Amino acid sequence: MKSYGVDRSSREELYLPFTQAPYDRVSFLIRTSPTGDVSASTIQSAVSGLVHDRPIYNFRTMKQHLGRRSSDRKISLVLISLFAGIALMMACAGVYGVVAYSVAMRGQEYGIRMAMGASDGGIQRLVLFGTVRLTMLGVGLGLLATYFATSLLSGMLFGISARDALTFAGVGSILTFVAVAASLVPAFRATRSGPLAALRGTDRSI
């Protein structure tokens, strides 16, 4: 039985007759049909036929019961998710700033490439591929470090492994998408001014 939390391992338990080991509080677990709704009054009437001298209270569904038992953990995970979202937005802004600065500093190079016949699409792919290459390296190192640090979160999870492969793949895909999306504007700006202005070094705006 998981009497000490759904996130803990099952433990062996021994059931004794109530008359042999009486207790001041007794919990009834009632199974109903999957589609049928049973009111609290119906349950109270049924249980009253078994127990006449004790008050009956605190009706709740299994979903509500599990929600109360895991409420503290949910708050912690919500806070972690909030901070992760903030970190993701900061990473997006950081990638944009780095790529935009790199494009501005390499403006003359892009101008030479365009003067030599490079197309706008070729310059944009050059910027994007460079971003993707660095992003894949960073995401790979980050996921590797996370793989060995998941033991810190394993106690807060249940029903899923702390090293779930689908979760790792999803996080890596999201981070890669954010990095590429953040570099789209600098990639298009790389070809905005044309080769002449780039060669003169007049377009260095971020």
What is the topology?
Elements: H1 40-48, H2 62-69, H3 71-105, H4 107-115, H5 120-149, H6 165-189, H7 194-200
Helix pairs in contact: 3-6, 4-7, 5-6
What's the short version?
By secondary structure, this protein is an all-alpha fold. It folds into 2 domains: about 1-70, no CATH class; about 70-200, no CATH class.
Chain-averaged pLDDT: 76
Number of distinct helices? 7
Beta-strand content bin? under 5%
How many β strands by DSSP? Answer: 0
Task: Give me the oligomer status.
Answer: single chain
Count of structural domains:
2
Which stretches of 5+ consecutive residues score pLDDT under 50? 202-206
Distance between the termini: 61 Å
| Category from helices, strands and their pairing | mainly alpha
What does the model show?
- The chain is an all-alpha fold.
- It has two domains: 1-69, no CATH class; 70-200, no CATH class.
- The chain contains seven helices and no strands.
- Helix 3 (71-105) packs parallel to helix 6 (165-189), helix 4 packs across helix 7 (194-200) and helix 5 (120-149) packs antiparallel against helix 6.
- The longest helix has 35 residues, at 71-105.
- Mean pLDDT is 76; it is low at 202-206.
